[in-house]
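Notes from the 1:1 (GR / supervisor)

We went over the backlog. Supervisor wanted to see one worked example end to end before approving the batch request, so GR pasted a single chain during the call. The sequence is below; no edits were made to it. Supervisor asked that the structure be written out right there so they could see what the output format looks like.
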Amino acid sequence: MKQFSFSEMNRASGEILETALIEPVALTKRGKQKLVILTMEAYERLKGEPDVQAYRLEDAPQHIHDELMEGIDAILGAERDA
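Structure output shown during the call:
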């Protein structure tokens, strides 16, 4: 993702907006990302996705742990069979 500062946005907004039509653009202030400009299509895709949750392994619900272990077992089984 390309980054531009707020100051650059004031000077080169046309170029930055053209870039945002191709890929998301991060706007930074004092070196920290503060905003992202993206196409309406990309935004709609993000809105349509269900909420994603993350867990630390020790905090994950049992069904998440079980799915993880099944996936690991499947990968290891495939490696053994290869």
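Supervisor's comment: Residues 62-81 form the longest helix (20 residues).
Batch request approved.
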